[in-house]
Design goal:
The structure is a homodimer. The first copy, chain A, has a domain of about 110 residues. Helix content of chain A is about 65%, strand content about 0%. Chain A is elongated. With about 210 residues, the first copy, chain A, is mainly alpha-helical. At the A-B interface, α6, α7, α8, α9 and α10 of A face α6, α7, α8, α9 and α10 of B.
Chain lengths: ~210, ~210
């Protein structure tokens, strides 16, 4: 969800790039829309598993000129920051919310279903984050931001977690983490249904007992 | 523990490499010793966080000629396989064993202490594995081999795990995984002592109750 490792942004600069390339469709869009369009394009490319997302690839896929992209994001860190903001918005808008009268069981299920879908859709973005986290300060910052945001939203829909011992809370959050999902998918080769069942079984063990 | 991503092995081949470079110290060692010496050198470089481990770097650090290295490992996959075998040996030899009369508590503690030390020492190797696992079939194979071997050894010292529901077993193994250790270290910024305490607390919750 967080950020892209492989954006080979800094190998180009706005100045060195060929400014004669025309930005056709982009000019008609308003500035905010264009930024959004660029970010959405990058996410689409990343989710599809593209490993080398550079300015040329983004420009071609977004049907914009490279100059337009540089006008919106002057350097790699600015782009990474914007990608993180967009991911945050996405979390805030789509995370399942706690509604009145909803049983614990129902809330656990909708949370797990949401997380598993997100992990499955964004797995390549998570892999890239894992790769770049050691090398890029900005990627590490973004990853921490997303980590905290996801924890905060989990607590909102499952406030029961807060009554547990701090050490148990760590294990509960781990059950709901991308890391656990990935280990079951990649190493234990579990299917989607099996994973969801394992998560609900273990979450219940922590939260359903008195 | 498993394998190295960044070994830029295939950019060289034995034929294209300058064969005139002398192999001084290497000739005195016997073949098995030389292989071992090469592998140990790579592990030492990797553990120190070196990201670009190519033939020149290995040769220099091992005080061997590139030709000697190629004689022992003809290509990148052969080298990766050998690194995995060495890691397996390391696990088998050093994993804490279940001795008679040892309490569950004591076995849990020595297991957790062993795993945390291993994760801390080999964290860069795990990061590299995570990076390369998507791209290299051999790295993926190695990772699965290590994953199974670690699980098998955990079951030997803590046979109590096998009496648990399969779904609960997944959560128990996750508590003992590199992924959980890394998330606490990298995102929650926990200290060594805190991590060990969290692990023992949660492992006890699964295994100590009737």
């Amino acid at each position: 969800m967080t950020v892209l490792l492989s954006i080979q942004y800094d190998i180009y600069t706005a100045n060195s790039y060929d400014m004669n390339k025309k930005t056709k469709d982009g000019r008609k869009l308003r500035s905010q829309n264009t930024s959004d369009h660029i970010l959405s394009t990058i996410y689409r490319l990343a989710r599809a598993g593209n490993q080398d997302i550079n300015i040329d690839v983004i420009a071609k896929e977004a049907k914009l000129g490279a100059r337009t992209i540089f006008r919106h994001f002057a350097n790699k860190d600015a782009l990474l920051e914007a990608l993180c903001k967009k991911a945050e918005e996405n979390i805030v808008n789509n995370f399942p919310k706690k509604s009145e009268n909803e049983t614990l069981e129902k809330r656990m299920k909708s949370l797990i279903s949401f997380l598993c879908n997100m992990y499955s859709r964004d797995k390549y973005i998570y892999y890239w984050t894992a790769i770049n986290i050691v090398q890029s300060e900005q990627v590490y910052k973004n990853a921490i931001t997303m980590y905290k945001l996801i924890r905060m939203n989990i607590l909102k829909i499952l406030p029961e977690i807060e009554s547990k011992d701090q050490r148990e809370q760590e294990a509960i959050f781990q059950i709901l983490s991308f890391a656990f999902w990935r280990d079951m998918r990649l190493f234990s080769k579990k299917k989607k249904k099996e994973i969801e069942e394992i998560l609900i079984f273990n979450l219940k063990k922590h939260l359903s007992t008195k």
